[in-house]
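To: structure subgroup
Subject: Chain for Friday's discussion

All,

I'm putting the inputs and outputs inline so they're searchable in the archive.
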Amino acid sequence: MKPSIDQRLETVYHASSRESLAQAYDQWADHYDADMQGIGYVHPAIMSGLVSRFVSSLNAAILDAGVGTGTIGQLLSILGYSNLLGVDMSEGMLAKARTRNIYADLRKAILGEVLDIETASIDCVVSSGTFTLGHAPASAFDELTRITKPGGVLIFTVGTIVWEEAGFKAKLDALVAAGQLQKTTATPIYHPMPLSKTESGFQAQAHVYRRT
């Protein structure tokens, strides 16, 4: 019997290790898009809107960090962005993203570890649903900042429940204080999964920082 979307969400939010988290996403990959559409998932629309607002060049190198099945890339491709890259810890999710045929490069990588990406080579990092319960750590922003070009942007969501408790605010404040990032804007707090029976109360916020 196929697990419900709420069971899937509980599994990924409470994974005991990176390996079990990757395995959970591998097993979910074939049903992920339909499941998330069914609960009104709004992160991809918000991310693509912010990219179109802050990234003017359609040839900009855009890294989807935590690419999943490539939903954001699909939206960005429709908007005309043509230089899309992606990383994810789940081979199953990467396999689904590859079927879209819109990414110049897709590779397995773990946010929070060193990325095999050249320093100052990315115009925009976009990441949705990755900085949340049991997922990528605040330390991932060191590498994401390193690979972003001066003047480039980092556009990402963070669950409000982990914003301070998991050190995201402190990490980003430290990068701002060190002169590496400049805070540009943040959306109002919103519900990214409004139709989920168990997660409709979960809240997040989208942030935009510029590389200095």
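Points worth raising on Friday:
The mean pLDDT is 93.
The helical segments are 5-13, 18-38, 43-54, 71-78, 91-98, 140-147, 160-163, 168-177.

D.
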